[in-house]
Amino acid sequence: MAPEQAGFDARRLARLDAHFARYVDDGRLAGWQLAIARDGKVVHTSVYGQRDAEAGLPVEPDTLWRLYSMTKPVTSVAAMLLWEEGCFELTDPIAKYLPEFADVRVYDKGSSGQPFTVPAAEPIRVWHLLTHTSGLTYGFLNTSVVDALYRKAGYDLAMKPGADLAEASRDFAALPLLFQPGTAWGYGVSTDVLGRLVEVVAGVPLVEFLRTRILEPLGMADTSWSVAPGEPRMAALYVPGPDGRRTRFDPVGKAAFEEPLAPSGGGGLISTAADYQRFMNMLLARGGALLAPRTVDFMTRNHLPGNVDLDTLQTGGFAETTFEGVGFGLGFAVVRDSVPARVFSSPGTYYWGGAASTAFWIDPVERLTVAFYTQLLPSSTYPIRPQLRQLVYSALTD
Questions:
Q1: φ/ψ of residue 58, rounded to 5
Q2: First-last CA distance in the chain
Q3: Where in this chain does the record put each Beta-lactamase-related domain (predicted)?
Q4: What's the burial of 312, exposed, middle or buried (CB within 10 Å: 0-12/13-18/19+)?
Q5: How many domains is the chain partitioned into structurally?
Q6: Phi and psi for 294 in degrees, rounded to 5?
């Protein structure tokens, strides 16, 4: 669709390409891909730089990107497919399906060498997993005694070597929670545990459930948990070097070429821009042929207790969003009021991002989907996401 027909100024859209080209030209990023659509029709798409700088391979429309935490909405949709079928209630204690969570404990005080814990006053419920209010955390956050315990147990940037999803779930249940369930918001392995719950309830492995119930119905043929060694379309992975220029990071990047023993529902998928566009189009269409319209509406409301924003409940640490004026639904951050964060979005916009600086959002008011793909860990390195929003919304003319 021509930009003018979709209510965009083509000259202002060109600012996006020029702005993010500078990230590549000065060495901060190796390359990127951008897709903007309205009413499900692509208005602006562009690529720049290299998917593999060392090999001299450019970013192309079918480049494969690591989604990392942009996997979480996909796993959340998988859970809600089962919810629609009456397989569980959102208020169910997860111990009903994962008995290892029957007697979880909560960190109270002490060190990682001698932590003191108390019983959970409330069981972890399914909706706690979907909203990151479970008390589960991530080992790589480096902000608490509890995440130090995760690292001691073998869970840092990746799953413990040799552990499958069932073992990982048991390990997480044996570790203390960061806070009492439902009392705070903390980023962590909640969606990985949700993925384990999906496979227990569905009676099939998570990989199979996502493939047959989401990826194949939506035509996401290029989305998978790993790629063949040497796959030429796969983007390399980078981190900032000492001089601020990106540096190749194969120790973590090589995981894309290995079939995971514990497929991470919270961060495991690899995909293309075209494939993820199909997923976003389904959500923009309020479920399409996959979910019921009211289910998507329900998922994208703020489910935080008291309808507060993340700033009120957050525990700090790494996350893929700002906290001010932002709530959290069932698998997505949800904009309540864009003014506190000083970056415009329509109320009700929902979104998430990935650790390698990828990001997407869906604006039901403007009927808009936007996705940005790149390959730099961590996502907090540069203000790509707020800059992307201000440039996209300033290009709207209608």
A1: -75, 160
A2: 15
A3: 16-388
A4: middle
A5: 2
A6: -70, -25
Residue 223 DSSP label: -
Tokens of 362: 């869906």
SS3 state at 234: strand
In-domain check, residue 82: no
* Residues across the chain: 398
- Rounded distance between C-alpha atoms, residue 7 and residue 273, angstroms: 22
Task: Decide if 309 contacts 326 (C-beta within 8 A).
Answer: yes
**Around 37, how many Cα atoms within 13 Å sit in the side-chain half-sphere?**
23
pLDDT in tens, 66-118: 999 999 999 999 999 999 999 999 999 999 999 999 999 999 999 999 999 99
CATH number of 232's domain: 3.40.710.10
HSE-up of 148 (CA within 13 Å, CB side)? 10
- At 302, the amino acid letter reads N
Q: Tokens 């540069």 belong to which residue?
A: 382
154 with 221, same domain: the answer is no
Count of other CB atoms within 10 angstroms of residue 263: 25
DSSP 86-147: TS--TTSBGGGT-GGGTT-EEEEEE-SSSEEEEE-SS--BHHHHHHT-SS---GGG-SSHHH
- Structure token pair of residue 304: 């935080």
Average pLDDT over residues 273-297: 98
Domain of 367, in residue numbers:
3-77+205-393
**pLDDT value of position 157:** 87
Residue where a domain terminates, one of 151, 183, 198: 198
pLDDT at position 126 is 98
Query: Which residue, among 298, 76, 319, has the nearest Cα to 184 in the 3D structure?
Result: 319
pLDDT at 375 over 90: yes
Position 301, amino acid: R
